[in-house]
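Structural prep section.
Before we set up the soaks we want a predicted structure of the protein with 6-phosphogluconic acid in place, mainly to decide which crystallisation condition to try first. Input record follows.
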Amino acid sequence: MSEVRRGFVVTLADPAEAAQAAADRFVHLARSACDAMGVFRVALSGGSTPRAMLALLAEEPNRSAIDWGRVQVFWADERAVRPSDPESNYRLAYGTLLSKVSIPESHVFRMPADQADLDEAARQYEETLREETGAAGGDPPVLDLVLLGLGEDGHTASLFPGSAAIAEAHRAVLAVDGPSAGTAGASPPVRRMTLTPLVLNAARERVFLVTGTAKAAMIHNVLEGPYQPDVWPAQIVEAHRSLPLWILDEDAARELDDGKR
Ligand code: 6PG
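Run finished without errors. Recording the tokens verbatim:
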């Protein structure tokens, strides 16, 4: 593992090994949080990259290593689609992991981004997040782990380049516009609900899982380029309690300076 100014970087040989490393980290953090506090609160992301990691968590030995009755699942972002839609981040997590482990339904906090009034739905989700984490007054809700991805345009969660949500200082959850068609790889151009940087930076640990050559230039920009989160939003996930952890495969790390791969 090497440290760059903006994160700890661990580079694995391929996407399968990177998924394994992310699953290992999830298990370690879940066990520590459950032992220390009796509960583990995690926010998941969508897109295609987390699928392999989520599937590993549903398999032994991981499945039995976690007391799923003590896990609470939230989302970092959700697309404004029905939960049954193939583009739904909830659907991905439900199909690959949540339907396969004994997590109580009442511990799964889907972002209701399919509601007609998305602003009101984001307000409701913020309230739920505050209640469940016991966040008082203006304090940000504190999650134990936020799992994040990176778009080819530098977005993370649903913080897209140029979005006002990147500078949000009060709200924990916002309704935002999606990317313009074709600007964010396979990420669909639909409206979204997203956690704001307030929550992403208050979390005890932030883990990015990023693989593939298509992300290599943006990995270099975000970790080694000038600080401009309005252009490369993933830079807004900053050192707070700790530096974020970036789990990469060799293809995604190929444009990092020598010695940091
Ligand atoms: C979303 C995501 C998003 C994702 C990146 C990377 O709903 O679009 O949560 O932030 O993490 O777009 O997605 P891929 O893994 O598909 O490249």
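Observations: The chain has a mean pLDDT of 94.
Flagged for discussion at group meeting.
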